[in-house]
């Protein structure tokens, strides 16, 4: 989907700030992707259920596409499904999911108010970190989801999710406490709820992040 600037130079639509964010994000989806022209999240979920893109797709019990409001203004993105998510086919349903619900409730969100998903749609064995090939295969599916949802704001929970979305290799300390630009959308990175279960000292900075997120959300949705 290349276009040209005033000087005749080819411009990648994803990098064209004059285009709306959904259009820029859609440009990240490969032209030959089978799901590129799908019009609903349910269509993508049905397709993913019967599709093997990488070996972990063969080993899963369920594909985990996402849950929540398909027209949500806020999308929350994690790294990958865990054991409970793989069994139930829904993201963030274990202990970390219950804590995420409490965090959302603290800033006056219900789970049904937002859309929750992951970079990977299948559980990696033993919950290991995603491989580059797995991210390459599954991330465009996420981009298509975002293009359909058209959120106003993105929250990434965990360093892996944040670095993947921003194409960086930064520490969580360098990623959080600020908003990043994701093809025209503000994106925040904070601690993963599973990390908070392991270390309670991270709850305070997470709370500070969430207050910032709520303030930005209200600014973006009040117009």
Report on the architecture of this protein.
The protein has 223 residues and is α/β, with parallel strands linked by helices. It is built from ten helices and eight strands. The protein has one domain: Uracil-DNA glycosylase-like domain (Uracil-DNA Glycosylase, subunit E, 3-Layer(aba) Sandwich). The strands form two sheets. It has a six-stranded mixed beta sheet with strand order 3-5-4-6-8-7, sandwiched between helices. It has a two-stranded antiparallel ribbon with strand order 1-2. Strand 7 and strand 8 form a beta hairpin. The longest helix has 19 residues.
Mean pLDDT comes to: 93
Count of domains: 1
Discrete helix count: 10
**Rg calculated over all Cα atoms:** 17 Å
| Shape summary | globular
The CATH superfamily appears as: Uracil-DNA glycosylase-like domain
Q: How many runs of DSSP E, i.e. beta strands? A: 8
Order of helices and strands: EEHHHEEHHEHEHHEEHH
Q: Return the CATH architecture.
A: 3-Layer(aba) Sandwich
Largest sheet: 6 strands, mixed
Distance between the termini: 31 Å
User: Which structural class fits the helix and strand makeup?
Assistant: alpha/beta
The CATH topology corresponds to: Uracil-DNA Glycosylase, subunit E
Approximate strand percentage = 5-15%
CATH class: Alpha Beta
Main-sheet strand order equals 3-5-4-6-8-7
Helicity, as a percent range: 40-55%
Task: Give start-end ranges of low-pLDDT stretches.
Answer: none
